[in-house]
Amino acid sequence: MNITRRPRRLRSSSLLRKMVRETRMDVSALVYPLFVVEGEGKKEEIASMPGQYRYSVDRLPEPMEELRQAGVSAVLFFGIPDHKDETGSGAYDPDGIVQRALRYTKKHFPDIYCIADLCMCEYTSHGHCGILCGQDVDNDKTLGYLARIAVSQAQAGADMIAPSDMMDGRVAAIRGALDQNGYTEVPIIAYSAKFASSFYGPFREAADSAPAFGDRKTYQMDYHNRLEALKEVQLDIEEGADIVMVKPALAYGDLIREVRDLVRVPVAAYSVSGEYAMVKMTAVSGAVDEENIMCEMAAAAFRAGCDIYITYFAKELARCINAGKIG
Q1: Contact 309, 326 (CB under 8 A)
Q2: Does the N-terminal or the C-terminal CB of the chain have fewer CB atoms within 10 Å?
Q3: Burial level of 193, CB count in 10 A (0-12/13-18/19+)?
Q4: 244 with 263: CB under 8 angstroms?
Q5: Which residues contact 242 (CB under 8 A, 6 or more apart)?
Q6: Catalytic residues, which ones?
């Protein structure tokens, strides 16, 4: 056969395949979501997310040391308070659960980069991501509360603020409040293209954040829409977002790529709770190889164009990268 071009030549050995690999991954790009709860001595496994836990602040050394050993240096904090009310006051309480976790981590693990998720759903008695007017979330009234939460988190030591509420104008409100209070160097990673997704199911158990009525489709995005996602991303950048995010990751690789091609800021992808749970549950049945599926999902997100990958598999993925199994 007279075949001049043979792509298989570059697949002939593992060393050559790695040499010509197009998608490279680094442990420094991984972020681990971490749930913190009130109380002491608590490590509560999340039933729908095997291997994931909710920790009280005094038990944080355990996951922090595990992250250090794996080489993961960034966490994304979610707080579950004991008290909830109409205005989600625990979210901006100087002694709130995330604020205490931030202070503890910055004191005892200063090498860990702390990102604070900024939303109200875990803190409101109704489970929605803002202030209600009747049964609707009042967008503009919510902005002042989001700004207040951001300042409180920055005061507690947050290295980065991550607004996930999807209110219009929230990035501008948060950026303005941070700057006015002297936190001009604290960046914002915006949940810019955050879809109303069924992939979030296990998270709502983990964070005790299911809405008491209705759903979040008036503020989270319709998963049928593509141009709207690009519009949201552009608006967040115009308002001052330093990093933009696509969430979920697994079914949204097309949008990760479009956002990457559109913008000149870092792009994050969040591999959410449902993605993690599906891998765990199918691996238990023996239907898939957990490690290989985990690595393939991560490679797909990076191949699509993300620079930062938020994943509950961060520790396991880091070990695979360090061992040369991926990346």
Answers
A1: no
A2: N
A3: buried
A4: yes
A5: 187, 188, 189, 265, 266
A6: 194, 247
DSSP strand pairing (136-137 vs 132-133)? antiparallel
Q: How many CA within 13 A on the CB side of residue 230?
A: 11
The residues with which 85 forms a beta bridge, in sequence order, are 124
Torsion of CA 117, 122, 126, 132, to 10 degrees: -20
Angstrom distance (rounded) from CA 112 to CA 62: 13
Half-sphere exposure of 217 toward its Cβ, with a 13 Å CA cutoff? 9
Render each residue's pLDDT in the chain as its tens digit; 327 residues.
Answer: 889 898 999 999 998 998 999 999 999 999 999 999 999 999 999 999 999 999 999 999 999 999 999 999 999 999 999 999 999 999 999 999 999 999 999 999 999 999 999 999 999 989 889 999 898 999 999 999 999 999 999 999 999 999 999 999 999 999 999 999 999 999 999 999 999 999 998 987 877 777 777 678 889 999 999 999 999 999 999 999 999 999 999 999 999 999 999 999 999 999 999 999 999 999 999 999 999 999 999 999 999 999 999 999 999 999 999 999 887
Buried b / exposed e over 223-260, threshold 16 CB at 10 Å, is: beeeeebbebbbbbbebbbbbbbbbbbbebbebbbbbb
User: Does pTM surpass 0.85?
Assistant: yes
For 311, what's the count of Cα atoms within 13 Å in the CB-facing half-sphere? 29
Please answer whether residues 263 and 285 qualify as being in contact, where contact means their C-beta atoms are separated by less than 8 angstroms. no
